[in-house]
Each structure stands twice: as C-alpha cells, then as structure tokens.
Amino acid sequence: MDIATLPFQKVLSEEESRSLETVDVYISDVEPKETSQVLKFIQENCPQSKTLCHVKRIKKTIHSDGKGFTLSVLICLTFSISINELKLLIQKQNLDSILNPRVHQISKYPAITRTQFEEWKKLWPINFHEDPRREPNFTSEEIETLKSHMIRAINLAEMAKSCGEIAVGCIIVDSKSGKVLSESYDKRTSSKHPLRHATLNCIDELSMPERTSIPAASDFIIPNKRKAEDDDDQTYLCKGYDIFVTHEPCIMCSMALVHSRVNRVFYGRSNNLSGGLGSCYKIHTHEALNHHFKTYKGFLEDQIEMLEIDC
Ligand SMILES: [Zn+2]
User: Whole-angstrom Cα distance, residue 169 to residue 105?
Assistant: First the structure.
C-alpha cells in the first residue's frame, strides 16, 4: 500500500525528519575531456573530508534546450582551504585555464529517507541507498488486521469511560500469529494509583501467566497467557509483540516499552503534554537507548477524538 494512503504516519526520528542543512564547498565547471585530470589534481592536492562521502564528485546539468550539458566537479570544503590558497595550488599545476573555483552549497548530511533525497539532491547529487526495513510495505489485508486491533483498543477505552476511568485502551498482540495476548485500560481512577496507565497495565498483564480474567472486561475473550520460553523472553516481556493504544504513551510508559523490547507501537491521539513517542520525546529512536522500535501515530484518530468529545 502506498505510504501516502496509509491510515497512520510513521513517527520519524530526528535524523529522518531533519530539514536540509547546507555546507559550503568549492566547485568548478570542467570540460568532459579534462575531467580525469581535474579529479587527479583534487585527489593529490586538495584537502579531502570523510564528511563528504554522501555526495557525488561530479554533477551533470543538462541544458534547458536539451542540447548538450555542463559538468561540474566538487573540489573540497571551503573551511579546509581559502580560495586564494586553492587558486595558488591550481596555478602551480598549470590548471588555471581549466579550473575556476567558486563557492556552492551542498547538503551537509546524508539523506536517510526518500523525501530528503528527492529534495536535497536538487542542490548537488547525493548518494542514497534506501533501506527497505525503514519503510516497510503494508498490504491491504495487513491494514485490515491492524485496524481490527486498534478498534479493540478503542472498545477498551469506551469500556474504561463507562466505568468512570480515563478513556485510554490498550492491547498487546503477537505480531506473527496475530493473537491478542493482553488487554487493559487506564485504571488510575478506581485504583487511586498514579501508575495504573493503560500501557503499564497491559505489560503487567503479560507478566501474570496464570491470570484468567480482567476486571470489568468480561465481555472480551481473554487470551491464553503466553508462557515465557526462556530467560530472554522472561526479561523482555514484549519481544516480537505489537502494542495498539488509543493515546500516545507517556514518557514513563514509553520507557517501559523500551525495557520490554516491544516490536511496534500503533497509537491514535498524540499526547502533547507528556507523550514519549513523538510529542515531547522520540524515545523509540533515541540513540542512547539500546532498543529501538517503529512507531505509527494517527491510527483511527477521528474515532478516538469522538470518544473524548462524548466524555
Ligand atoms: Zn503512561
């Protein structure tokens, strides 16, 4: 399914959502037959930087009338050498008739997403290797399954509301089998306990393998609780599992999702006050943390909004 028609949006990391930032370089137009000589000169005489690995050395510009083209070559970063020093180097090698450096701007960073690539290459050609794991393709059938899970989370939020609780519902699903392993809602009001958030309750459910019922959720089929198969699974309760939650998890719940090694998170409404997966922080992509997961927002958001209006 095309990314533009998905019923949710990926919550991008800082790198993925970065806007164009530029850095100044020297470039020069060159005649095609002199290109190899110029490249040799650059390689042997000009300061080179590893930070330019993402850009191409040569740019080809087709003339607007479609007849002919101009080749331009990237020489080096401007902060590595002054223009006068560079011109002296060029003169020394008797290349001043074929090299005439001028300052140009290029993208400072490599493009991570196709959107960045399409935009940033307009300045100067850049290398781009699309990682298919970054933008997974969802089939229509998969979307319908994901929707049914989200609707189940919304039903739980409705149930919470009818019980006088805060209307947030959550389920945990085995992403391979599609089996619902745990479901809960916010229980802060009835428990008078500040930590009884829907997401934490759901994770807590997974740690209780013998549990057979969920209070006030008797209308729902209670799934068989999984038995932890090894030490790793015992430590990482949500390994390989997806979470569907009506509202963006708070920072505390987001950290619990990191610690339990969740596979993916789908949520509906953003939480601008304390959301940890997009609004206040992007904990799922934080470089300093040792587990990262994909997060998608805006899923069936309208239905969740209606639920809040009804409150
Ligand atoms: Zn929370």
Answer: 49
In whole angstroms, give the CA distance from residue 170 to residue 244. Answer: 6
CA of 14 to the centre of ligand 1 (A): 22
Tens-digit pLDDT profile for residues 84-111 = 999 999 999 999 999 999 999 999 999 9
| Rg of the chain, C-alpha, whole Å | 27
Beta-bridge partner residues of 102: 27
Helix axes 251-259, 198-206, angle to 10 degrees: 20
Enumerate helices (H) and strands (E) in the chain, giving the number of each: 9, 10
For 172-206, how does the pLDDT look when each residue is reduced to its tens digit (9 = 90+)?
999 899 999 999 999 999 999 999 999 999 999 98
State the distance from the centre of ligand 1 to the C-alpha of 200, rounded, in angstroms.
7
Residues 6+ apart with CB under 8 A from 147: 7, 299, 300
**Measured in angstroms, how far is the CA atom of residue 309 from the centroid of ligand 1?**
21
Residues in the chain: 311
CATH number for the domain formed by residue range(s) 140-209+237-307: 3.40.140.10
Class of domain 22-123: alpha beta
CA–centroid distance, residue 274 to ligand 1 (Å): 8
Read off the pTM. Answer: 0.77
Residues forming CATH 3.30.70 domain(s) in the chain:
22-123
In this structure, what are the phi and psi dihedrals at residue 191, rounded to the nearest 5 degrees?
-85, -15
The closest of 284, 298, 281, 309 to 244, measured between CA atoms, is 298
Bridge partners of residue 27, in order along the sequence: 74, 102
In the chain, which segments carry CATH 3.40.140.10?
140-209+237-307
